[in-house]
Specification:
With 392 residues, the chain is an alpha/beta fold. It contains eleven helices and 15 strands. Bound molecules: adenosine-5'-diphosphate and magnesium ion (MG).
Protein backbone atom coordinates (compact mmCIF):
# COMPACT_ATOMS: atom_id res chain seq x y z
CA UNK A 1 0.00 0.00 0.00
CA UNK A 2 1.25 3.44 -0.98
CA UNK A 3 0.65 6.68 0.97
CA UNK A 4 0.91 10.10 -0.70
CA UNK A 5 0.69 13.38 1.22
CA UNK A 6 0.02 16.74 -0.41
CA UNK A 7 0.99 19.88 1.41
CA UNK A 8 1.74 23.53 0.67
CA UNK A 9 0.51 27.04 1.44
CA UNK A 10 -3.22 27.80 1.58
CA UNK A 11 -5.00 27.99 -1.77
CA UNK A 12 -2.15 26.66 -3.97
CA UNK A 13 -4.09 23.58 -5.08
CA UNK A 14 -3.38 20.83 -2.51
CA UNK A 15 -6.94 19.55 -2.44
CA UNK A 16 -7.23 19.63 -6.22
CA UNK A 17 -3.90 17.80 -6.70
CA UNK A 18 -4.75 15.19 -4.05
CA UNK A 19 -8.22 14.61 -5.50
CA UNK A 20 -6.88 14.45 -9.08
CA UNK A 21 -4.22 11.93 -8.09
CA UNK A 22 -6.76 9.73 -6.31
CA UNK A 23 -9.09 9.87 -9.33
CA UNK A 24 -6.26 8.72 -11.62
CA UNK A 25 -5.38 5.86 -9.27
CA UNK A 26 -8.96 4.56 -9.09
CA UNK A 27 -9.26 4.76 -12.87
CA UNK A 28 -6.13 2.55 -13.09
CA UNK A 29 -7.74 -0.08 -10.91
CA UNK A 30 -6.30 0.83 -7.50
CA UNK A 31 -8.61 0.75 -4.49
CA UNK A 32 -8.15 4.35 -3.42
CA UNK A 33 -9.01 6.46 -0.40
CA UNK A 34 -8.44 10.20 -0.34
CA UNK A 35 -8.80 11.73 3.08
CA UNK A 36 -8.38 15.25 4.35
CA UNK A 37 -7.00 16.10 7.75
CA UNK A 38 -7.23 19.83 7.09
CA UNK A 39 -9.99 21.32 9.23
CA UNK A 40 -10.90 23.44 6.19
CA UNK A 41 -12.33 20.42 4.37
CA UNK A 42 -12.85 20.97 0.68
CA UNK A 43 -12.74 17.47 -0.82
CA UNK A 44 -16.52 17.50 -0.98
CA UNK A 45 -16.35 20.66 -3.11
CA UNK A 46 -13.64 19.22 -5.35
CA UNK A 47 -15.72 16.10 -6.02
CA UNK A 48 -18.96 18.05 -5.93
CA UNK A 49 -20.56 15.39 -3.76
CA UNK A 50 -21.56 14.84 -0.18
CA UNK A 51 -18.72 13.40 1.88
CA UNK A 52 -18.86 12.29 5.49
CA UNK A 53 -16.50 11.39 8.33
CA UNK A 54 -16.40 7.78 7.06
CA UNK A 55 -15.09 6.74 3.62
CA UNK A 56 -17.78 7.66 1.08
CA UNK A 57 -17.78 6.11 -2.39
CA UNK A 58 -17.81 8.78 -5.12
CA UNK A 59 -16.80 6.63 -8.09
CA UNK A 60 -15.75 3.08 -8.79
CA UNK A 61 -12.93 2.13 -6.33
CA UNK A 62 -12.72 5.78 -5.24
CA UNK A 63 -13.57 6.73 -1.65
CA UNK A 64 -13.41 10.11 0.02
CA UNK A 65 -13.28 10.87 3.73
CA UNK A 66 -13.18 14.13 5.68
CA UNK A 67 -11.82 13.12 9.06
CA UNK A 68 -13.74 14.42 12.05
CA UNK A 69 -10.70 15.74 13.87
CA UNK A 70 -12.68 16.97 16.86
CA UNK A 71 -13.93 13.45 17.54
CA UNK A 72 -10.44 12.02 17.14
CA UNK A 73 -9.08 14.69 19.42
CA UNK A 74 -11.53 13.93 22.21
CA UNK A 75 -10.99 10.19 22.02
CA UNK A 76 -7.20 10.48 22.31
CA UNK A 77 -6.67 13.64 24.28
CA UNK A 78 -9.81 13.79 26.45
CA UNK A 79 -8.40 12.06 29.55
CA UNK A 80 -5.12 14.00 29.40
CA UNK A 81 -6.94 17.27 28.86
CA UNK A 82 -9.25 16.54 31.81
CA UNK A 83 -6.25 16.09 34.05
CA UNK A 84 -4.48 19.24 32.82
CA UNK A 85 -7.68 21.20 33.38
CA UNK A 86 -7.97 19.96 36.95
CA UNK A 87 -4.39 21.09 37.59
CA UNK A 88 -5.11 24.54 36.17
CA UNK A 89 -8.35 24.69 38.10
CA UNK A 90 -6.57 23.99 41.37
CA UNK A 91 -4.16 26.78 40.48
CA UNK A 92 -7.13 29.14 40.19
CA UNK A 93 -7.20 29.45 36.39
CA UNK A 94 -10.58 30.32 34.92
CA UNK A 95 -12.15 27.16 33.37
CA UNK A 96 -12.65 28.75 29.95
CA UNK A 97 -9.04 29.90 29.83
CA UNK A 98 -7.98 26.47 31.11
CA UNK A 99 -9.78 24.74 28.26
CA UNK A 100 -8.05 26.96 25.75
CA UNK A 101 -4.66 26.32 27.32
CA UNK A 102 -5.06 22.56 27.15
CA UNK A 103 -5.82 22.46 23.44
CA UNK A 104 -2.46 22.08 21.74
CA UNK A 105 -2.21 24.08 18.53
CA UNK A 106 -2.13 21.71 15.59
CA UNK A 107 -2.97 18.70 17.75
CA UNK A 108 -6.30 18.11 16.08
CA UNK A 109 -4.59 17.46 12.81
CA UNK A 110 -2.00 15.19 14.39
CA UNK A 111 -4.79 13.13 15.82
CA UNK A 112 -6.64 13.15 12.52
CA UNK A 113 -3.62 11.30 11.15
CA UNK A 114 -4.55 8.43 13.47
CA UNK A 115 -7.41 7.86 11.08
CA UNK A 116 -4.80 7.39 8.34
CA UNK A 117 -3.09 4.75 10.50
CA UNK A 118 -6.41 2.94 11.04
CA UNK A 119 -7.23 3.01 7.34
CA UNK A 120 -3.72 1.83 6.45
CA UNK A 121 -4.10 -1.09 8.86
CA UNK A 122 -7.49 -2.07 7.46
CA UNK A 123 -5.92 -3.61 4.36
CA UNK A 124 -8.74 -2.15 2.23
CA UNK A 125 -6.61 0.18 0.16
CA UNK A 126 -3.91 0.08 -2.49
CA UNK A 127 -3.41 3.81 -2.14
CA UNK A 128 -4.24 6.43 0.48
CA UNK A 129 -3.91 10.06 -0.56
CA UNK A 130 -3.81 12.64 2.24
CA UNK A 131 -4.91 16.22 1.70
CA UNK A 132 -2.95 17.95 4.48
CA UNK A 133 -3.31 21.30 6.21
CA UNK A 134 -1.10 24.22 5.09
CA UNK A 135 2.64 23.79 5.53
CA UNK A 136 3.42 25.26 8.92
CA UNK A 137 0.82 23.29 10.84
CA UNK A 138 1.62 20.04 9.12
CA UNK A 139 5.30 20.40 9.88
CA UNK A 140 4.69 21.15 13.51
CA UNK A 141 2.40 18.22 13.88
CA UNK A 142 4.69 15.87 12.03
CA UNK A 143 7.40 16.74 14.54
CA UNK A 144 5.22 16.04 17.50
CA UNK A 145 5.48 12.26 17.75
CA UNK A 146 9.21 12.67 18.08
CA UNK A 147 8.93 15.35 20.76
CA UNK A 148 6.53 13.15 22.64
CA UNK A 149 8.88 10.21 22.19
CA UNK A 150 11.66 12.13 23.79
CA UNK A 151 9.50 12.92 26.76
CA UNK A 152 8.20 9.38 27.03
CA UNK A 153 11.64 7.78 26.86
CA UNK A 154 13.40 10.13 29.22
CA UNK A 155 10.98 11.66 31.68
CA UNK A 156 7.93 9.51 31.78
CA UNK A 157 9.26 6.33 33.40
CA UNK A 158 10.80 8.34 36.18
CA UNK A 159 7.81 10.58 36.70
CA UNK A 160 5.49 7.65 36.75
CA UNK A 161 7.54 5.92 39.45
CA UNK A 162 7.78 9.08 41.46
CA UNK A 163 4.09 9.77 41.23
CA UNK A 164 3.21 6.26 42.26
CA UNK A 165 5.40 6.51 45.33
CA UNK A 166 4.71 10.03 46.41
CA UNK A 167 1.21 10.66 45.16
CA UNK A 168 -0.56 10.48 48.55
CA UNK A 169 2.00 12.79 50.10
CA UNK A 170 2.15 15.21 47.16
CA UNK A 171 -1.60 15.59 46.89
CA UNK A 172 -1.91 16.33 50.60
CA UNK A 173 1.09 18.61 50.65
CA UNK A 174 0.59 20.66 47.47
CA UNK A 175 -3.17 20.37 47.08
CA UNK A 176 -2.42 19.69 43.40
CA UNK A 177 -4.29 16.82 41.76
CA UNK A 178 -1.95 14.04 40.71
CA UNK A 179 -2.63 12.14 37.50
CA UNK A 180 -4.63 8.96 37.90
CA UNK A 181 -3.82 5.70 36.12
CA UNK A 182 -6.16 6.42 33.15
CA UNK A 183 -4.18 9.59 32.39
CA UNK A 184 -0.94 7.65 32.22
CA UNK A 185 -2.64 5.00 30.14
CA UNK A 186 -3.94 7.66 27.74
CA UNK A 187 -0.48 9.22 27.39
CA UNK A 188 1.09 5.85 26.77
CA UNK A 189 -1.53 4.92 24.18
CA UNK A 190 -1.21 8.27 22.43
CA UNK A 191 2.53 7.86 22.32
CA UNK A 192 2.30 4.39 20.80
CA UNK A 193 -0.31 5.57 18.28
CA UNK A 194 1.73 8.56 17.17
CA UNK A 195 4.82 6.39 16.88
CA UNK A 196 2.93 4.17 14.46
CA UNK A 197 1.81 7.18 12.41
CA UNK A 198 5.37 8.38 12.24
CA UNK A 199 6.68 4.98 11.18
CA UNK A 200 4.07 4.84 8.46
CA UNK A 201 4.83 8.34 7.18
CA UNK A 202 8.62 7.96 7.20
CA UNK A 203 8.52 4.41 5.84
CA UNK A 204 9.47 3.40 2.29
CA UNK A 205 5.87 3.43 0.99
CA UNK A 206 5.07 7.00 1.96
CA UNK A 207 6.11 10.26 0.37
CA UNK A 208 5.24 13.92 0.49
CA UNK A 209 4.53 16.24 -2.45
CA UNK A 210 4.93 19.97 -2.12
CA UNK A 211 2.36 22.00 -4.00
CA UNK A 212 3.30 25.56 -4.93
CA UNK A 213 2.34 28.35 -7.27
CA UNK A 214 5.09 30.24 -9.14
CA UNK A 215 5.28 33.18 -6.75
CA UNK A 216 8.42 34.00 -4.81
CA UNK A 217 6.90 33.91 -1.30
CA UNK A 218 5.25 30.57 -2.00
CA UNK A 219 8.44 29.07 -3.41
CA UNK A 220 10.45 30.34 -0.42
CA UNK A 221 8.07 28.55 1.91
CA UNK A 222 8.20 25.36 -0.15
CA UNK A 223 12.00 25.35 0.12
CA UNK A 224 11.80 25.73 3.89
CA UNK A 225 9.33 22.86 3.98
CA UNK A 226 11.71 20.65 2.04
CA UNK A 227 14.49 21.34 4.56
CA UNK A 228 12.23 20.70 7.51
CA UNK A 229 10.59 17.59 6.11
CA UNK A 230 14.03 16.14 5.41
CA UNK A 231 15.13 17.04 8.94
CA UNK A 232 12.30 14.93 10.29
CA UNK A 233 13.03 12.04 7.93
CA UNK A 234 10.12 12.41 5.47
CA UNK A 235 10.73 11.71 1.81
CA UNK A 236 9.71 14.41 -0.65
CA UNK A 237 9.34 12.86 -4.10
CA UNK A 238 7.69 15.59 -6.10
CA UNK A 239 6.96 19.29 -6.42
CA UNK A 240 3.79 20.47 -8.14
CA UNK A 241 3.94 23.91 -9.72
CA UNK A 242 0.29 24.82 -10.16
CA UNK A 243 -1.60 27.70 -11.82
CA UNK A 244 0.95 28.42 -14.51
CA UNK A 245 -0.34 31.02 -16.95
CA UNK A 246 -0.46 29.72 -20.53
CA UNK A 247 1.45 32.10 -22.76
CA UNK A 248 -0.60 31.88 -25.96
CA UNK A 249 -2.34 35.03 -27.12
CA UNK A 250 -0.91 37.12 -24.34
CA UNK A 251 -1.77 40.76 -23.81
CA UNK A 252 0.73 43.03 -21.99
CA UNK A 253 -0.65 42.15 -18.54
CA UNK A 254 -0.46 38.42 -19.22
CA UNK A 255 2.97 38.66 -20.86
CA UNK A 256 4.33 40.23 -17.72
CA UNK A 257 2.92 37.46 -15.53
CA UNK A 258 4.13 34.77 -17.90
CA UNK A 259 7.65 36.24 -17.82
CA UNK A 260 7.65 36.55 -14.01
CA UNK A 261 6.37 33.00 -13.54
CA UNK A 262 8.84 31.65 -16.05
CA UNK A 263 11.77 33.16 -14.08
CA UNK A 264 10.51 31.64 -10.88
CA UNK A 265 9.93 28.28 -12.55
CA UNK A 266 13.54 28.27 -13.81
CA UNK A 267 14.61 28.92 -10.26
CA UNK A 268 12.40 26.10 -8.97
CA UNK A 269 13.81 23.70 -11.58
CA UNK A 270 17.37 24.64 -10.66
CA UNK A 271 16.94 24.52 -6.93
CA UNK A 272 14.89 21.43 -6.12
CA UNK A 273 17.64 19.21 -7.50
CA UNK A 274 16.59 15.68 -8.35
CA UNK A 275 13.01 16.06 -7.09
CA UNK A 276 10.70 15.90 -10.14
CA UNK A 277 8.70 19.02 -10.85
CA UNK A 278 5.23 18.54 -12.28
CA UNK A 279 3.62 21.54 -13.93
CA UNK A 280 -0.05 22.33 -14.07
CA UNK A 281 -1.53 25.21 -16.07
CA UNK A 282 -4.00 27.75 -14.76
CA UNK A 283 -7.21 26.31 -16.18
CA UNK A 284 -10.11 28.32 -17.54
CA UNK A 285 -12.38 27.00 -14.79
CA UNK A 286 -12.11 25.29 -11.42
CA UNK A 287 -11.34 21.57 -11.80
CA UNK A 288 -14.39 20.11 -10.05
CA UNK A 289 -15.81 16.59 -10.40
CA UNK A 290 -14.19 13.27 -11.35
CA UNK A 291 -13.76 14.00 -15.09
CA UNK A 292 -12.20 17.45 -14.59
CA UNK A 293 -9.94 16.18 -11.81
CA UNK A 294 -8.75 13.30 -13.99
CA UNK A 295 -7.92 15.75 -16.80
CA UNK A 296 -6.10 18.01 -14.33
CA UNK A 297 -3.96 15.10 -13.06
CA UNK A 298 -3.25 13.70 -16.55
CA UNK A 299 -1.90 17.05 -17.70
CA UNK A 300 0.08 17.54 -14.49
CA UNK A 301 1.87 14.16 -14.42
CA UNK A 302 2.37 14.20 -18.20
CA UNK A 303 3.05 10.48 -18.56
CA UNK A 304 5.10 10.05 -15.35
CA UNK A 305 3.98 7.35 -12.92
CA UNK A 306 2.71 9.26 -9.88
CA UNK A 307 2.48 6.05 -7.81
CA UNK A 308 6.05 4.82 -8.20
CA UNK A 309 7.80 4.15 -4.90
CA UNK A 310 10.30 6.84 -3.97
CA UNK A 311 13.80 5.78 -4.89
CA UNK A 312 16.92 6.91 -3.10
CA UNK A 313 17.93 6.82 0.50
CA UNK A 314 15.97 8.01 3.50
CA UNK A 315 16.84 11.64 4.40
CA UNK A 316 18.41 10.46 7.68
CA UNK A 317 20.92 7.63 7.52
CA UNK A 318 23.45 6.00 9.75
CA UNK A 319 26.24 3.70 8.60
CA UNK A 320 29.60 2.28 9.61
CA UNK A 321 32.63 4.13 8.29
CA UNK A 322 35.67 2.44 6.76
CA UNK A 323 37.74 3.49 9.77
CA UNK A 324 35.42 1.74 12.20
CA UNK A 325 33.52 4.86 13.25
CA UNK A 326 29.91 5.70 12.42
CA UNK A 327 28.61 8.27 9.97
CA UNK A 328 25.28 9.93 10.47
CA UNK A 329 23.93 11.80 7.46
CA UNK A 330 20.92 14.05 7.45
CA UNK A 331 19.78 15.73 4.21
CA UNK A 332 19.03 19.39 4.84
CA UNK A 333 18.42 20.85 1.38
CA UNK A 334 18.63 24.67 1.28
CA UNK A 335 19.84 24.91 4.87
CA UNK A 336 22.72 27.34 5.39
CA UNK A 337 25.67 26.60 7.61
CA UNK A 338 25.01 29.45 10.03
CA UNK A 339 21.35 28.46 10.46
CA UNK A 340 22.19 24.93 11.51
CA UNK A 341 23.12 24.10 15.05
CA UNK A 342 24.25 20.81 16.46
CA UNK A 343 24.35 19.89 20.13
CA UNK A 344 24.94 16.75 22.08
CA UNK A 345 22.77 16.19 25.14
CA UNK A 346 23.53 12.95 26.91
CA UNK A 347 22.18 10.24 24.59
CA UNK A 348 20.71 12.62 22.03
CA UNK A 349 21.97 14.57 19.09
CA UNK A 350 19.97 17.76 18.71
CA UNK A 351 19.90 19.22 15.19
CA UNK A 352 18.35 22.68 14.91
CA UNK A 353 17.56 24.43 11.64
CA UNK A 354 16.14 27.88 12.29
CA UNK A 355 13.21 27.31 14.63
CA UNK A 356 12.87 23.57 13.89
CA UNK A 357 14.57 21.07 16.08
CA UNK A 358 15.02 17.37 15.78
CA UNK A 359 16.20 15.23 18.63
CA UNK A 360 17.88 12.13 17.25
CA UNK A 361 18.15 9.51 19.96
CA UNK A 362 21.50 7.85 19.46
CA UNK A 363 21.63 4.06 19.34
CA UNK A 364 23.28 2.37 22.33
CA UNK A 365 26.53 1.84 20.44
CA UNK A 366 26.96 5.62 20.03
CA UNK A 367 26.18 6.64 23.59
CA UNK A 368 29.84 6.88 24.56
CA UNK A 369 31.06 7.76 21.08
CA UNK A 370 32.83 11.04 20.44
CA UNK A 371 31.80 13.39 17.63
CA UNK A 372 34.96 13.85 15.60
CA UNK A 373 33.60 15.81 12.68
CA UNK A 374 30.43 17.66 11.72
CA UNK A 375 29.97 19.46 8.45
CA UNK A 376 27.21 20.72 6.20
CA UNK A 377 28.16 20.14 2.58
CA UNK A 378 25.95 20.19 -0.54
CA UNK A 379 22.78 20.15 1.55
CA UNK A 380 23.77 17.20 3.72
CA UNK A 381 24.82 17.33 7.34
CA UNK A 382 27.49 14.72 8.03
CA UNK A 383 28.37 13.86 11.61
CA UNK A 384 31.09 11.35 12.34
CA UNK A 385 31.45 9.47 15.57
CA UNK A 386 34.53 7.65 16.82
CA UNK A 387 33.70 4.70 18.99
CA UNK A 388 35.58 4.78 22.26
CA UNK A 389 37.02 1.51 23.55
CA UNK A 390 34.22 0.88 26.04
CA UNK A 391 31.53 1.62 23.46
CA UNK A 392 32.62 -1.09 21.03
N1 LIG B 1 -4.75 24.83 -12.06
C1 LIG B 1 -5.89 25.38 -11.66
N2 LIG B 1 -6.65 26.10 -12.50
C2 LIG B 1 -7.79 26.67 -12.10
N3 LIG B 1 -8.28 26.59 -10.85
C3 LIG B 1 -7.57 25.90 -9.94
C4 LIG B 1 -6.34 25.26 -10.29
N4 LIG B 1 -5.87 24.64 -9.18
C5 LIG B 1 -6.76 24.88 -8.20
N5 LIG B 1 -7.80 25.63 -8.65
C6 LIG B 1 -8.94 26.13 -7.86
O1 LIG B 1 -8.39 26.99 -6.87
C7 LIG B 1 -9.10 26.85 -5.64
C8 LIG B 1 -8.12 26.46 -4.53
O2 LIG B 1 -7.60 25.16 -4.82
P1 LIG B 1 -7.49 24.04 -3.68
O3 LIG B 1 -7.07 22.80 -4.35
O4 LIG B 1 -8.74 24.00 -2.88
O5 LIG B 1 -6.29 24.65 -2.83
P2 LIG B 1 -5.76 24.25 -1.37
O6 LIG B 1 -6.29 22.90 -1.03
O7 LIG B 1 -4.26 24.27 -1.51
O8 LIG B 1 -6.22 25.31 -0.44
C9 LIG B 1 -10.18 25.82 -5.88
O9 LIG B 1 -11.37 26.49 -6.16
C10 LIG B 1 -9.68 25.05 -7.10
O10 LIG B 1 -10.74 24.51 -7.86
MG1 LIG C 1 -7.51 22.34 0.61
Amino acid sequence: MRVLLYTGKGGVGKTTAAAGTATTAAARGMRTLVLSTDAAHSLADAFDSLVGAEPTEVDERLFVQQVDSQRRFEASWGAIQGYLMSVLDSAGVDPIAAEELTVLPGAEEVLALLELRDQARSGEWDLIVVDCAPTAETLRLLAMPEALSWYMDRVFPMERRLVRTFKPVLTRYTGMPMPEQPVFDAIERLHADLGEVRDLLTGPDASVRLVLTPESVVVAEARRSLTTLSLYGYRVDGVIANRIFPSAGADAWRRQWVAAQSNILDDVAASFGSVPIWRSPYRSCEPVGVAELAAFAAEMYAGDDPFARPTGASPVRMERDDDGGVRLECDLPFAEQDHVDLARHADDLVVTVDSYRRVIALPAVLRNAVVTHARLASGTLVVRFALTADAV
